[in-house]
Amino acid sequence: MKTSSTKKAVVLAFLVAAGILMQLIESFFPVVMIVPGYKIGLANITGLFALYAYGIKEMWIVTLLRIFLSALAQGSIFSVSFALSMTGGLMGLAAMSLAYKCGWFSIYGVSTAGAAAHSFGQVLAISWIYQQFFMQLFLPVLTALSIVSGLAIAMLTSMLLTRLRFSRALERG
Amino acid sequence: MKKADYLLICALMVFSAGALIPLAFSRKEASRAVVQVRNKEIMAIDLLKDANYTVQGTNGPVNIEVKDGAIRVTQENSPHHYCSKQGFVDSVNTPIVCLPNETVITIEGEDESEDTVIS
Questions:
Q1: How far is B55 from chain A (nearest CA, A)?
Q2: Which residues of A touch B118 (CB under 8 A)?
């Protein structure tokens, strides 16, 4: 039991590190700048991986640590963009936990729900912080795009889970 | 993929399509421009009607033109002609300011152009 919990801690630490790296690298390359604020969100692979490999609690740990530490690395901690990141992250985490727990969805549905809730939370936070409501014009576009990114992330994560022999976790959903 | 996944994706698509509908109807909202000379509102201009106007500024007449929902200053008397060089403006966030003439033109109403940058 001792070794497996050590192994788990190491895997989670690796996931956090990989997530920070992906978030930083993605912020250098604004992939699609058609809509301001839209990113594929490659870093969410790590959260989804933790969810299916270990469980809900581990996903929260990995994602929250990743948001916190990458903000620290970028020097944007406790700024507006950190608040936006955090609100979106929390909304996404809550939606993914619910979608995972109710058991109706496969990994694709869970990921898409998380992506949609993430963009919803960010639009909410932007409207609240800036007191400007033009961002709501982007909400339909962002939710439509979050289907794309949610499915892409789910596909990448399920490939990763299969290759890293965590595929037993996928059978659940 | 399970059935619930398809349902969720369809629901999201319907939601995004549905949320776009009100936008199509709210396009013609920014339709009024206000002209101020020496901090006093002297004219309200309907932007939906193409026309020419003249107001009396500090250095002489200021000619204003409205075309296709946008407004500009065509001719005025000032050292650098900044406000006539500015050209057409159709955004709430961009006023036309003629400082030597103490004339300010602002568009009022709902705005749809985005120029706040969020990074």
A1: 33
A2: 36-37, 81, 84, 126
Question: Mean pLDDT for each consecutive 10-residue tract of chain A (173 residues)?
Answer: 79 94 82 65 92 92 93 84 89 95 91 93 82 68 89 93 76 55
DSSP label at residue B89: B
Count of all residues that appear for chain B in the document: 119
Alpha carbon distance B38, A51 (integer Å): 64
Q: Judge whether B111 is closer than 8 Å to chain A, CB to CB.
A: yes
Count Cβ neighbours within 10 Å for each residue of A51-88 and write b for 16 or more, e otherwise.
bbbbeeebbbbbbbbbbbbbbeebebeeeeebbbbbbb
Long-range contacts: A23-27, Cβ < 8 Å, 24+?
A: A23/A66, A23/A70, A24/A70, A24/A73, A24/A74, A27/A74
Between CA B81 and CA A57 the distance in angstroms is 64
Strand, helix or coil at B119? coil
**Burial (0-12, 13-18, 19+ Cβ within 10 Å), A143:** buried
Pick from A108, A132, A147: CB nearest B12: A147
Name the residue of chain A whose CA is nearest to B24's CA.
A137
B75/A122 Cα distance (integer angstroms): 45
Read off the amino acid at residue A119.
Answer: S
- Of the candidates A65, A102, A100, A101, the one whose C-alpha atom is nearest the C-alpha of residue A85 is A65
Check CB contact under 8 Å for A106 and B5: yes
